[in-house]
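writing this on my phone so excuse typos. first protein, seq and then structure
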Amino acid sequence: MEIIYDIKNITKKYPSRNIIANKDINLEIYKGEIIALLGPNGAGKSTLIKQMMGLIKPTSGNIHLFGEDIQVNSKFITENVSYYAQDPHAITSLRVWESVYFSSRLKGLNKTSAILEADMLIRQIGLEKYKNDYIKSLSGGQKRLISVALTLTGNPKVLIFDEPTNELDPVKRKKVWEIITNKNKEGATIILVTHNVLEAEQVVDRVAIINEGKIVALDGIKQLKHRIDQRMRLDLSTSDNLITNKLFTSFSEKRPQRLTDHKLRLLIQKDEIVNVINKLTNLNEKFDFDFSLVPPTLEDVYLRLEGGVQTSESIGI
């Protein structure tokens, strides 16, 4: 498979703040794939993206894009990669249509092609009736849709989206994911940074889970699920915080996650299910609670990370 981004031994340090944002990251991104970077806040995802865009330089290591060293040829990034900015601050004084049109022109399209692209993209994001409005007058969700359109101008080979569906209602979120997947079908390579694990799971080919500046898991969705396929997810729900505490103590050896004051989640081995069901039955005679057993999802891996897991071994993958 053709390698689009070849990231080798990237480390980024901020000595003045005593922070190591990225630690010896190695990652290959392939042509035509959709890859998601997942991880808790402060994990180092945005720092990695900024280095991939040439916005900051790594302390050590190197990044190649289509074989070009981006520290030597930073112009190569703007020619091939488009980055989704969550809020189009720089163009809020423009009208919706002209912002897309000028973006297309800046990316090399002639006047006729830019007009056609602006009309098409505004139609795709569903903002035709706002095309003559100033961007600064739009809602936060509408501004995000404009950012999506601006990212798509010029038909770039690589698209990087940082939380593209934040602040969007379900209908607009679905529209954005459709646009992203359609661009991928047309041949674009997509890199997603998102916290919305459930939505991302429906569209991505591979996932890189980042925690404390390191990649702790990297694989396809099916492969990740297969690696934890010998476990089941147990959800426990109560109506009383005291009962939640009792259950937490009873299953402490399973390292339960406290999702809320009234809900716990843990992963158990399939060969332990009978024993766990018996234990739950006995506890249910003392305490009032509900439980469910379901196969684990990608979200379970992510939640394990948010719970403080720092290595691939400690999350069982």
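second protein below, same order as before
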Amino acid sequence: MDWVYVPPQHSTCESYWMALLEEGPLSDAPAPGLWEWREAPPTSPELWDEAERLQRDHVIMQLTIEDYNRGGLIGYWKGIECFIPASHLLAYPFPADPAAREECFKRYLGRDLRLCIIEVEPPRHRILFSERQVEACEGEQRSWPDWLRVGAICEGEITSVRPFGAFINLGPLEGMVHISEISWGRVRHPKDFIEPGQRVRALVLSIDEQHQRVGLSLKRLEPNPWDSVREWIRPGDELPGRVVSVERFGVFLELGSGLEGLLHISELSRYGTDSAIPIYQRYRLGDVIPVRVLDIVPEEHRIALGLCESHGEVTGNDDKAERHPAV
């Protein structure tokens, strides 16, 4: 867990610092309170990744000024402290005496400023912004190509793979594929399907020109198996299913490419399964279980399963288990 060195809750009066410099530590000026180490609020790596991308793409942001200190203004973005140094303010008077500086900062309180990121500092749990560099950032923003629109199919190289998805270099900018858009089947981690350096084709799902964001999908370039599920399985069919997840309420089984069904715990008890043994001890990932299709609801992506009446022993996790043809 990270820790940060923070000032007291109230802003430090400028007169205290001047008295300290002129009269020494025995000054009668009111002390600002003690600084202390505090535990920094948890910040997900995804937020720091987003901040670095916003800096890299020269995105102009709007920030509300909530406080200030001797060096500049303070605001917050998604719970992260943001600092705008005095030297990066358009209206900062140069040179400024302490009283003029504090008066300048007070006029900023509550205002919304257009800013751009100049530095991202995860170890210090803060982001540095600039008001003076906004014009330069606007000039350096990457142009939005005409071909990049919702519904377009593009090709690019995967630059990084994270637990929540992957980033793809589209040339003028980067797009992101969320983990839910990688495959129609279960995705435990994107790295099981894609890797940095790999070239892929993707469908553009969304565009945010203001924040230079592009949402992409890999799976939607492939047929949705739920659209044709009734063509190859029907209620009453018996087939093998491979365990992909064990929950307290039942077992999820992979039936084919991108399709899963639920073997509810109530179905297990119907066939004399020992309920005293926890379900997670009875079934393991990769086990193959002969099941019967009870119901299919394609629009809800749901298949209800039961054990075959003549079900035998569960087949262990091996690659030789017979599989039903994939969709």
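The helical segments are 14-23, 45-56, 98-108, 134-140, 265-269, 279-282. thats all i got for now
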